[in-house]
């Protein structure tokens, strides 16, 4: 079975399995100036959990979401609720910047997040397919066998329940595995839908299709929206994946984006239970989900820096091949991709955007572990607003920045960005628009200038400037999702140039396709 248009079993959209079960009614756009105690930007697990915790403490909150609730990374996750975040604890313990105490604290905070989700589900009887599962990392090479042994020692030192295993219940030859006991999985959209209902019942406000673009700072800061309205609060919590407002925090130089892919398949054999991820490349992630009484296996992996991957279809096909090698796949029900942000030291940034602006806080950089890290952020925000802890007086504070090893990574990431800033501008391309078939997109040369072109199914050409409107890197064509993706900080644009995902706020410059020999700029809205 391969992915092509003849395969009727495949959805045409890249809607995730979770988003297909989203029956939440829409919310209005913010259309007048509003004032609340706390403005929360972003309708994913961090924003919704924060709002839930804060309305329960008597705060007046508003969530402002650029698209629809859950439509970002939260709706496209594997939804594993675990403190087993690949191989991190041994690295944390041996990092000069992190060390034993913080490694332990990182684990405990994520364990607390798991416990919070469990208690919330049980107390509220939330029907969200929550179930406990053991979580496994497995190694298929000698190099990673040794790394898992070191990670197992780190588990012992930290006091993590688990240990090495020789086998996992699949047709995969492994060198060893490492289990973390009593983790969990759930349906994130069902879980968060319940929290949203509580937020509304307790007077919280929710605005969708309202894009936060800037902040007017002060004692009572205001979020300014692209739609021309504003909303003021004593605090602003930026839970929007990439921070929509960076202040002087230089987050563009401290975060990078990666994309990964998931397919949900029906298999002939029953899934044996557990959640799994490979330690070595290519990364493969496994869990099951029962949807409308039917068991599906979620196969994830193929991560790469945004804008630097091969064909998206090739990523899906690689996952399918793995699935066929391990399971007897009957059909593929869903496929989708996700985008995650990485910090310099692999610990999220949660706290004041800069120390001089403590009433504006951010939460970002969860890598692929947003269900627990997003909940960690929400629990921290609650404690900060209740003045139980001071902003940034904890290990997740974004103001941490030490020379070793972060500086090295900082320079590497910046060198990467600088490379993308100039690479495309120097590139000599031979393709032109007449080379494109219908349904094909590519970077082309027009009169010696680099442009992006996509020929739609009717033969119409859509031509854009490939300069990202964030800070000017060159976007690349993503043929699976028909989008222009930026390798620097992960902005994504539709083939017509509209923003799909920030940090870019403005569309790509568009050009008139009729004037292909003499391109003229169209009004692109900015
Ligand atoms: Fe930052 Fe494109 S330059 S996302």
Explained architecture:
It is a single chain. The protein contains eight helices and 27 strands. The protein is an alpha+beta fold and 526 residues long. Among the domains are: 194 residues, FAD/NAD(P)-binding domain (3-Layer(bba) Sandwich), CATH 3.50.50; 92 residues, Rieske Iron-sulfur Protein (3-layer Sandwich). A hairpin with a 5-residue loop joins strand 9 and strand 10. Helix 1 runs parallel beside helix 5, helix 1 packs parallel to helix 7 and helix 3 crosses helix 7. It is globular and about 60 Å long. The chain binds FE2/S2 (inorganic) cluster. FE2/S2 (inorganic) cluster binds next to loops.
CATH fold call of one domain: FAD/NAD(P)-binding domain
User: Which regions contain 5 or more consecutive residues with pLDDT less than 50?
Assistant: 1-13, 402-408, 521-526
What is the number of beta strands? 27
Main β-sheet, in a few words?
A: 9 strands, mixed
